[in-house]
Design brief:
17 helices; mainly alpha; single chain; Growth Hormone, Chain: A
């Protein structure tokens, strides 16, 4: 009677854990892709102002930062699989709550405690746990390539999710109004969290060796991690001025873009970002991880600043698409670099502690951007973002160009 069940268990154990992690990332980023676009539309439809939309985005990023910080401490002591299951449960609750709640103060609480992601990127409580689990399953020589594939899967899923943001408008002719359609999409977000939890449950539990039980989350790599966290905070604070929800809001208000047109634009933007990840892995093998991060990031920031002052929508979209093809090439390389310069027991903490300041810094700027939008200074968030990112890139190059991972030495 128990044989079929035992066979299923053995089959699951034969599946490489990275398959489950890649699949869960795809589902999560698909949900983040349409939520990031629908969130400002939903909040505006409920009667809130652009400033209030920015505050919601700030609150969501702040809550994500604190959850990620908690994971950094817990990840040194507890099974990463169990923590991922708990995070998936929070995602389910977040989707259901956003679908049924209209009160602004309650929405603030949900945004703070939940997993809604206004940036449609890899800023979430799931990331440090998945990074640590991926790194322990692969060799150093394959690390950057694996992170590139991991980011590629997420970016493609996020791009498809951007297209899915048009579903409420598609359903309008059959009698479902836009607000009801958006609520349905938040329910879908909850379902994606449930399926993601089932995928995490399929990862075989791993018994930690005594050497892996660190007495502190960070040890010998503490100084490097803190310096990286400080630099990444500058980058994240800059990026918070142009999180996807606010960029969508700028396109809606500045150029009167439709929901469907915005969905198509963010789809192609996501596709370009996705296929830049394998290019980043290839480039990093030739010029190194730090140089890849810097030399692709600076041109993308220049394109963003030019888009802020471009006179026509086609020119704006062209510049933003060029930016999309370059701006995310530092994602897999940055993740790989952090995992490379710390010891194995420190990886979850390092991923968390470099993510938390990023999230905290990114949490401050959407509200400022919302205030600038409300004051009719819509181009300024893009200009501020580009200038700060260039400053970050130069500091990163100066501080870390001589600290190389093992495969580059």
């Amino acid at each position: 009677m128990h044989v079929p069940y035992e066979r299923k268990v053995r089959r699951l154990e034969q599946v490489h854990p990275t398959i489950f992690l890649f699949s869960a990332r795809a589902l999560r980023d698909f949900g983040d892709g349409f939520v990031a676009i629908l969130l400002p539309v939903y909040l505006i439809a409920l009667g809130f102002t652009p400033l209030q939309v920015g505050i919601i985005a700030t609150t969501a990023l702040l809550g994500s930062a604190l959850l990620t910080l908690a994971v950094g401490f817990l990840g040194a002591k507890y099974d990463h699989r169990q923590l991922l299951l708990a995070a998936a449960g929070i995602m389910v609750t977040t989707g259901v709550a956003f679908a049924v709640v209209h009160d602004y103060s309650v929405l603030l609480v949900i945004a703070f405690a939940g997993t809604v992601n206004p940036s449609a990127g890899s800023v979430s409580v799931f990331v440090p746990l998945e990074h640590a689990m991926l790194t322990r399953e692969i060799a150093d020589a394959q690390r950057t390539k694996t992170f590139a594939r991991y980011s590629l899967v997420g970016a493609i899923a996020g791009a498809v999710g951007s297209l899915a943001a048009a579903i409420p408008d598609v359903l309008a002719p059959i009698g479902l109004d836009q607000l009801a359609g958006i609520k349905m999409m938040f329910v879908l977000y909850a379902v994606l969290g449930l399926v993601g939890g089932l995928l995490y449950a399929g990862i075989p539990p791993r018994h930690r060796a005594p050497a892996e039980h660190a007495t502190a989350p960070l040890g010998p790599s503490r100084r490097i991690v803190y310096k990286l966290a400080a630099l990444f905070s500058i980058d994240a604070f800059a990026g918070g001025f142009v999180v996807q929800s606010l960029l969508a809001l700028w396109l809606f208000e500045q150029f009167d873009m439709s929901l469907a047109a915005a969905g198509h634009f963010f789809f192609w933007s996501g596709v370009l970002s996705a296929f830049s990840f394998p290019v980043a892995a290839w480039l990093s093998r030739r010029i190194g991880l730090v140089h890849t991060m810097v030399y692709t990031h600076i041109p993308s920031s220049v394109c963003l600043m030019l888009a802020a002052i471009a006179p026509t929508l086609p020119m704006v979209l062209a510049l933003l698409l060029i930016r999309a093809a370059l701006s995310q090439m530092d994602v897999p390389t940055r993740s790989s670099y952090v995992m490379a310069v710390v010891t194995a027991p420190e990886r979850a903490a390092a991923a968390s502690f470099t993510s938390v300041p990023r999230s905290l810094a990114a949490a401050a700027s959407p509200a400022l951007a919302g205030a600038l939008f409300a004051a009719s200074f819509g181009a300024w968030p893009l200009l501020i973002c580009g200038a700060l990112k260039i400053f970050y890139d130069l500091l990163l190059l100066i501080q870390f160009r001589h600290i190389k991972p093992s495969e580059e030495q």
